[in-house]
Amino acid sequence: MGTRGCGLVREIGSLIADTAVFVPERARPAGATAGHARAAGGELGPVENEDYVSCLLRFVSGARGVLEASRVSVGEQNNYGFEVHGTKGAVFWDFRRMGELGVSTGTAYQDQPVSTVFAGPGQGGYAAFQPSSATSMGYDDLKVIEAYNLLRSVAEGKAHGATLDDAVRSATALDAMLSSAGRGAWVSLA
Predict the structure, then answer these.
(1) 188 Cβ contact list (under 8 Å, min separation 6)
(2) pTM score > 0.90 for this model?
(3) N or C: which end of the chain has fewer CB within 10 A?
């Protein structure tokens, strides 16, 4: 990974990851499955991928990060998002409240208030789906916007969203996480 900026907090310099399988056997599906549906009534079989992963990140800039994912956490219901904390503020986003961004600016640290900024017609593809601020968009709306941006990228020959380079960088980080989890050691990406 080079020194170019990408993502929310720039380049990953090194990482250490850990994985776990908490439920070693599950019912095998008797037919087609989709999404988060659990197979029921099938013959038990070994689980072939992890239930959980965590990763500590050291960014080239000196920033630190934590990634965590679990498909078996009780009550989480598609909880994914990000928090970025800096010396002059923070931003927070949660998929379940996708039209909102938590923003905190200033240097009061623990006493710093957080404001909620609602997406509105002036932001991205929002106006094509909703007439005013704080009117929720849905997952399907986002998929239409992603498809539009992909087709626009192809037609114009210019990226409107994630690029192939972004995909390669993501795959490189995932490979490093797999290597780190297997070895139980920090892996350098710089």
Answers:
(1) 13, 14
(2) no
(3) C
